[in-house]
Amino acid sequence: MSGYFADVAALARKDLLLELRARDTLPAMLLFVSAALVIFHFALPSGTGELAGLGLLWVAIVFTALLGLSRAFVAEREHGVLDGLVLAPSDRSAIWLGKSLAALTFLALAEIIALPLFALFFSGIDAGTVAAVALADVGICAVGVFVAAMSIATRARELLLPVIFLPLAIPVIVGGVGASVTDSPGRYFAFLALYDALFATICWASFEYVVTE
Amino acid sequence: MIRARGLSMRYGAKRIFDKVELDVERGGFVLVTGPNGSGKTTLLRLVAGLVAPSAGEIAVDVDRGRLGFLAHEALVYRELTALENLDLYGRLYRVAERRERIGMLLERFDLWDARNERTASFSRGMLQRLALCRVLLHEPELVLLDEPFAGLDSEGAELLDRELAVRHGWATFLVATHEPEQLAPLATGRLAFR
Description:
heterodimer; A: mainly alpha; 9 helices; globular; B: alpha/beta; 6 helices; 32% helix
């Protein structure tokens, strides 16, 4: 088992190093989420309630994640490196887990900018919303990386990722918005945690079939 | 080590090859020849387990971790250095004394001085040498080589000749090539696609 986690760590570290060198995903995510929140700020009529703003926060988070996920396998796709990873003797789910951890890091970094910006433009963020965002991030990255891996084998990869990912992200929006707007978010946290556990398990167990024919 | 019966491959309506029979004994050195598009690369990918056949059976008697595959691409990250790429593969393949082995291979393939350069700046020949380092890093029992001399200069080709000669007999080779005469002295068999 320690070997498995060593593989995951090596693969996640590689993705972080690639981003540190190329800097083509995180800056785009930061710019996108900032621009989206500024647009929402001016798009919403003055006097619109706090609830509408919280809904738009979740829209911004999901689409920012989608932007990052669309780049998740670019390095592997461009030079066929995925074949090299698939041929390695490590468990293939380690590729998914390593990539998910890297995607989670990028999304969390984007949110470190996005949440204060949201507080500046709309309303303060409570601890419940932050917890809901953290729970939602896990599910978004687990499912998103899985779908991104599926899409790289197709010609219509730019279409396939949003078309499959967005419907799968609807429960995250339901749970996230619910946890943000209610005074007792416990059941929404449980819903998000259940989503994370269920989909992470499915993705972990079936990733092997996504990267091999 | 490799046994294929009635192996057929199609991509959609296009037939790549049909009913191929192949036997490669342990320690064998089999050349796969044929014109472009005849299915040489596809056969190697089938043996590697990267694609599944449309029909027929293939059995490869080696663990995934004991297989080395040289593809058309070097299968390395362009934003990582040669050393970082080999280190990643060395970790995934659980190579014993990884750093020493990587250093030895980089020296042998004349890439030591370029070890800290990102591979995006490598020439085609340097990438092919690095790809050979990657393939040989874990001392594979089964080596699949797709046009191994592509991009190599005369010095690189000599290096490769030497490496193949050293491993001849104890590793098993399946080599797709347009230059079978260069490897003919080592060959124990040949599969010719038309």
